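This part of the workshop introduces the protein records we will be handling. An example says more than a description, so a record of this kind follows:
>
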Amino acid sequence: MAQRWEFTRGLKDIGNGLYAWLQPDGGWGWSNAGLIVDGDQSLLVDTLFDMHLTRDMLAAMADASGVKADNIDTIVNTHANGDHCHGNGCCPQAEIIASEASAKEMAELPPTMLAQFKQAGAQLGPAGAFFAEVFAPFDFDAVEERLPTQTFTGRMDLKVGDKAVELHEVGPAHTGGDVIVHVPGDRAVYTGDILFIDGTPIMWAGPVKNWINACEKIIAMDADVIVPGHGPITDNHGVRRVADYLAYVDAEARKRYDAGMSVRDAAFDIALGDFSTWGDAERIAVNVDTLYREYRGDGVVSSPLELFGLMRDLRDSQRR
């Protein structure tokens, strides 16, 4: 089913007024987005990491749907990571909806902070060099930030023309306030970063059970078309693989936590097996760190600099 749409950059018409914008290779910062149109109403699911990328996407959407950026009614940001919201300023008239938890996170991590971190680069050591490397293609300096204008918790029901659109808060999981967008009449789901397909999920928040439950919720929706936050359009098999990865890493990390291993040693020690071909495998460092925090129950969050440094070391070791 998912092979109907090649994983190539650009807009995919998934039928009946629904579109997906895909950005290979789906790695760091290369996120997907979506558009839902019915009659004279429209809803954009996420924007992109900077305004240049978002403007290109919106121009393609206007050509295909007739809906120009200035006429988009609503944006739903599925979560607070900048690759899903830093283009909000390209739609100055749109209502912006996010979960309450996501709105709080967006305010705490503005694009100016990313720009400063990226500019510092190697001055911050290997961690800063890795951050600057993976985010080199993106322009954080030119972001005109627009934060959510409306928030919700739990569930919110919308109408886009005659289409019913359901917003389901499933976080904390990938981040503190993840939301999935379900269009039941068209059997389609836009998942944000609850799904990374052919790429390694990264669990900044947890708990892991919430994320696995979110995958089960998507599977229960029995959608024909599932647009992930990163990677190619997928189906329930792809959702199940993400849940399997999370369960596997949880089990392996728990063994090593119980044996007294450090986060670093555990991240280096876990064999990824069938998941080793997924992109950005170094993200297991963050996943193990978040799982250890969950096991300890102390809520102590490691610094991003420490985590990016560990990911850099892991990536270098995987390449040898």
Observations:
- The longest strand covers residues 163-169.
- Residues 2-110+139-258 form a domain with the Metallo-beta-lactamase; Chain A fold (CATH 3.60.15.10).
- Residues 236-258 form the longest helix (23 residues).
